[in-house]
Design brief:
The protein is α/β, with parallel strands linked by helices and 451 residues long. Helices cover 49% and strands 6% of the residues. The chain contains 21 helices and 5 strands. The protein has a 5-stranded parallel β-sheet with strand order 3-2-1-4-5. Flavin-adenine dinucleotide binds next to helix 10, helix 12, helix 15 and helix 17. Its cofactor is FAD. Belongs to the DNA photolyase family. One of its GO terms (molecular function) is deoxyribodipyrimidine photo-lyase activity. This is Deoxyribodipyrimidine photo-lyase. Residues 1-133 form the Photolyase/cryptochrome alpha/beta domain.
């Protein structure tokens, strides 16, 4: 029996459902062999710079870790047929499930084409399958709190133990030309953005639990403080498993921070479940009431927003953080999304796509969910009349202006009194733009439009 493990966005040797399943099969079939493959389809290479760089850095680290354990990955390049040809002799094909499009359809096609040969799609990226939680009437939840209550009553799978020595003992090394992948690795290396790797992810989790979890409730809203886990990029590439994170947090000392953090992990599950049930929500508001909103074209406003030149320091600092680092703090994601969709009345889909292009941790479900929440068009979203005031948010969450000073450097010398809202004269002196929109008027316009 020949088992192929199809590596995708699950770059880790520990707590990996696919690898644990391979070990199980090897134990049942001592003569079986195993091999890891990674398929690169050039059709899926888009323009998502930072995320792609990070992805290939993470893949290279994983590839090196596998080599070190004498289990080199075989890299395949080409279309679907190339993949099917290259894995044609697999009696068993294993992979961790991805239910988001276009990957869901791709996987289903592969399963169909392999006909009656064993192909297993395993739950790994999430704690529960999107169909695992249903209401009593069999329908799925659309409101978060009852979903969360139901989630808390479920048995959550424990981390999988992977005996990689068993994999190594059965590993089938093939002669294969892997050289094409080096070009991708090289490009990513030259523009390294973060600290990829399974080890780094684990260290980050440990540090967060030891130093920040207890105060997470208070600090998670302060962009100038290192108060959140920064695990999203590792979860995105599968360098850490969600089960490992969940289990480690469960073991931590009781605190309000711990409970709030668990709630955030459940939001991740919730949005995933919502996207499964509303696959069209990339292009359509989940709330049918708000599908016909007349959005403004405002190309200039959108450009200023993208570039961090709106004249609202907290919005601009946030957008510059995104453009420079490929990541943005959660509080700021809410502020800039509200600004774009309410103050500028620009369609949330434009913002969603911009985030897709820039975010290292882009997850379709969380991004669409977050944008529809902020734009008040999603399920269980913020009510349309609650429009964030960017200046008030700034004063509350970046009190001393430390975060603004870091990214909007042209006004870094302004005192805490003016940093959130410089005077006209100061804007002129420091070369910082006038606000592109007056918030109070924009707020009224947005409420009237939604009404
Ligand atoms: P922490 O605060 O440490 O949270 C831990 C983990 O919980 C995160 O890594 C993430 O997996 C999950 N999580 C936290 N908050 C949320 C949330 N509101 N919704 C879903 N999951 C959550 N998150 C993404 O992973 N990818 C995205 O593309 C994304 N786009 C967003 C767009 C908007 C407009 C908004 C408002 C939020 C978005 N989020 C997204 C959610 C959240 O902002 C990020 O998960 C978080 O900022 C990542 O940083 P962290 O790992 O330090 O988070």
């Amino acid at each position: 029996m020949n088992i192929i493990c199809w590596v995708r966005s699950d770059f880790r040797l520990q707590d990996n459902h696919m690898l644990a399943r391979a070990v199980e099969l090897l134990n049942e079939n001592p003569k079986a062999t195993v091999e890891f493959v990674f398929w690169l389809n050039p059709d899926y290479i888009g323009e998502y710079e930072a995320r792609q760089q990070y992805f290939f850095q993470a893949l290279e680290m994983f590839s090196d870790a596998c080599k070190e354990k004498e289990m080199p990955i075989r890299f395949i390049e080409g279309d679907e047929q190339a993949f099917l040809d290259a894995t044609g002799d697999a009696d068993v094909l294993l992979f961790n499930a991805e239910y988001v499009e276009p990957f869901k359809t791709r996987d289903e096609k592969i399963i169909k084409k392999r006909k009656d040969r064993q192909t297993e799609r395993l739950l790994d990226r999430h704690l529960l399958h999107p169909h695992d939680i249903k209401k009593q009437d069999g329908k799925f939840y659309k409101v978060f709190t009852p979903y969360k209550n139901a989630f808390m009553k479920k048995d959550i799978p424990a981390p999988y133990e992977v005996k990689w020595q068993t994999l190594r003992d059965h590993y089938q090394k093939r002669q294969h030309d892997n050289s094409f992948i080096n070009a991708y690795f090289k490009k990513a290396e030259s523009e390294a953005v973060f600290y990829p790797g399974e080890k780094q992810a684990k260290q980050r989790l440990k540090k967060f639990i030891e130093q920040s979890l207890e105060d997470y409730e208070e600090n998670r809203d302060l962009p100038a403080v290192d108060g959140t886990s920064l695990l999203s990029r590792y979860l995105r590439t599968g360098e850490i498993s969600i089960r490992t994170v969940y289990a480690a947090v469960q073991e931590a000392k009781e605190s309000k921070g711990k409970q709030t953090f668990i709630t955030e992990l459940i939001w991740r599950e919730f949005y995933y479940m919502i996207l499964m049930h509303f696959p069209e929500s990339k292009r359509q508001a989940v709330n049918t009431q708000y599908r016909e909103i007349e959005w403004e074209k405002d190309e200039e406003g959108f450009k200023a927003w993208c570039e961090g030149k709106t004249g609202y320091p907290i919005v601009d600092a946030a957008m510059r953080q995104l453009n420079q680092t490929g990541w943005m703090h959660n509080r700021l994601r809410m502020i800039v999304a509200s600004f774009l969709t309410k103050d500028l009345l620009v369609d949330w889909q434009k913002g969603e796509r911009y985030f897709q292009q820039k975010l290292v941790d882009y997850e379709a479900a969380s991004n669409i969910g977050g944008w529809q929440w902020a734009a008040s068009v999603g399920t269980d979203a913020v009510p349309y009349f609650r429009v964030f005031n960017p200046t008030t948010q700034s004063k509350k969450f970046d009190k001393d202006g430390a975060f603004i000073r870091k990214y909007v450097t042209e006004i870094k010398d302004l005192s805490k009194q003016y940093i959130h809202e410089p005077t006209a004269e100061q804007r002129k002196d420091y070369g910082y733009p006038e606000p592109i929109v007056a918030h109070d008027e924009a707020r009224k316009r947005a409420i009237a439009r939604f009404k």
